[in-house]
Amino acid sequence: MEQIALKADFREERGRRGSKRLRYQGWIPAVMYGDGDSVPIKVDKKEFTHKIPVSKAEGILFEIQVDGESTPAVIREMQLDPITEEILHVDFYKVTRGKKLTISVPIVLINRDICAGVKAGGVLEEHLREIEIECIPSKIPSSVEVDIANLSIGDAIHVRDIQPPEGVDILQDPDDVIVLVEEPVKGLETTEEVPEEVEEEVAGEKEEE
Known about the structure:
By secondary structure, this protein is an alpha+beta fold. The chain folds into 2 domains: about 5-95, CATH 2.40.240.10; about 105-180, CATH 2.170.120.20. The chain has 4 helices and 13 strands. The N and C termini lie far apart (about 85 Å).
């Protein structure tokens, strides 16, 4: 898996106002959990967004460098602004090398352009965009790929259909649907047949006129 070194500083600013001030100054407020405690930290927004694609951030092992010490950690949660998608806050979780941890990684659908069901007019529906796994930090995959090339209309791929990478256990419910191809929605008829009785009445009215 990808590993990234990330510099951070301890922070004294707390609460909503403190976090807002930090973001204005170019920082991302964060907390590092583990060993029964939590440490408030802040990371440089430019460095973070330059090094880490937001869509892949939760599948990266970080080396958080604070005050001369380096701590391996993963992202447990990342809060985004619902409109601008600006990163508002990050929760890091300390990990121990060689010890298994639970983490969610993104699901990547491959061969979308040749999906049999979509080419036949079906509608692709994604029900699961990430999957919960358990493994040691060095085995965390950046993503789990799901091949949908042979997915036909009416077919679905469930969690149980996935073959996890070596050293990775999937914790997600095996019956959860990842993706399926639905029947195309048929358009409603734009014209309706007029009953013969109505046609005769209209014709009679026109004759009287």
